[in-house]
Amino acid sequence: MAVLERNNNLSQRMTQQLGRAIVCGEYSQGESLPTEADLCEEFGVSRTAVREAVKMLSAKGLISSRPRQGIRIMPEEEWNIFDSDLLSWSLEGNPSLKVLKEFLQMRIAIEPEAAALAARFARPERIQAIGDALERMRVASDNSENELEADIDFHISILYASENRFYIRMRDFTRTALNVSIRHTNVIKANPDGVLEDHAKVYYAISSGNAERAKNAMFLLIDEALGFIEHELEKSGER
Question: How many domains does the chain have?
Fold first, then answer.
């Protein structure tokens, strides 16, 4: 049992190190990775640990491993960006503005509708959870970490309040990305005091059962953040 546990820990460590290296561009798409024996030597692990790591990275869409073809880096469009590990690696350090923009584009297509569904179908305890997160944001306004956590919980609570199982299943992906996205947009936001007010508009619309108002309020909240990122992209020359 101890040997199995050690192999699992080593394969997890290798998965993290190699996965991060791939996502950060240390390997080119289509490039072949070293042989299994070379990977054992490079990472100081057994063949069993290498095979487990390869299996995990293949499941994330990062690599392909086939007999007589070896291990190859997959094209970026094949990567499972909804995987929380992969998303974390993508957003570590100095996150790509392009990735943040794409995340916000996805949010603006989903969260306004989730807010509208919450206004129509949320159970009282779900609405209470949104209100509690909003109150925590207000109380923590002088503590950036506590405010960030409350802000994230506010958005996750709305996914739950939509009572839509597909939206709810996006919670882990959304939490991981929001942790970076909100930090970045709040730094460049012209009116930080407006953050609480914008969230309050969403909450009051949901709690009053006004689906259209909830949808519009959430759209405006995310659209403002998207506008900031697009402006930063223009200044940096990225697209």
Answer: 2
**Is residue 26 helix, strand or coil?**
coil
pTM of the model: 0.81
Give percent of the chain with pLDDT exceeding 70.
91
Could you tell me which of 141, 221, 147 has the C-alpha nearest to residue 179? 147
* Cα 105 from chain centroid (whole Å): 13
Q: Based on the domain organization, do 161 and 182 belong to the same domain?
A: yes
Tell me, yes or no, whether 144 and 209 share the same domain.
Answer: yes
Q: Are residues 99 and 210 in the same domain?
A: yes
Tens of pLDDT, residue by residue over 143-175, are 788 999 999 999 999 999 999 999 999 998 899
Same domain, 39 and 126: no
Q: Looking at the predicted structure, is the pLDDT value of residue 3 above 50?
A: no
How much is the pLDDT for 4?
Answer: 36
Same domain, 48 and 98: no
Q: How many CA atoms lie within 13 A of 230 on its CB side?
A: 9
Distance CA 177, CA 179 (A): 5
Among the three residues 53, 78, 103, which one is the final residue of a domain in this structure?
78
Provide the 10 A C-beta neighbour count for residue 38. Answer: 11
Pick the last residue of a domain from 46, 78, 110. 78
Please give the structure tokens belonging to residue 104: 């916000």
Q: Compute the distance between CA of residue 223 and CA of residue 229 in angstroms, rounded to an integer.
A: 10
Q: Cα–Cα distance between 192 and 151 in angstroms, integer?
A: 13
> Would you tell me the crossing angle of helices 97-121 and 124-139 to the nearest 10 degrees?
130
The domain of 170 spans 84-236
Distances (CA, A) of 5 to 42, 203, 232: 21, 46, 46
